[in-house]
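Re-run with default settings, no changes from the original entry. Doing this only to confirm the output is reproducible before filing.
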Amino acid sequence: MKSKKVGFLSIDEYIAMFPEDIQTKLEEMRATIKAAAPDAVEKISYQMPAFALKGTLVYFAAWKKHIGFYPAGELRAFEDELSAYERSKGAIQFPLDKPLPVDLISNIVKFRVMENLSNAELKSRKRKA
């Protein structure tokens, strides 16, 4: 279901390209991520909506039958909760015909925030040493 338009400048522009029912899901995903990472910055990266805080946290995108969620990190801590969803390396598929698992999404985003902040702190210490 990805739009063929190239060069989105904002998440608003990306979401506006989809039918209303998909827009609702995308806005719910966006709001969940914002609530879990209020200091994160919205951006478009790889022509997908993304959020960044000391590096990219997560990406998401609409497809024909699912919302793709792309956490930019390790997710072993969530194996049990993620077992209910189709996955591939670095991607989780949330079916369009089911509610988004907002608690799971929120927990993954919070986990990614901690990872990015920890990694940034480590890099800062190495530079000072």
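The domain at 11-128 is CATH 3.90.1150.200 (Aspartate Aminotransferase, domain 1). Helices lie at 11-16, 20-36, 79-82, 102-128.
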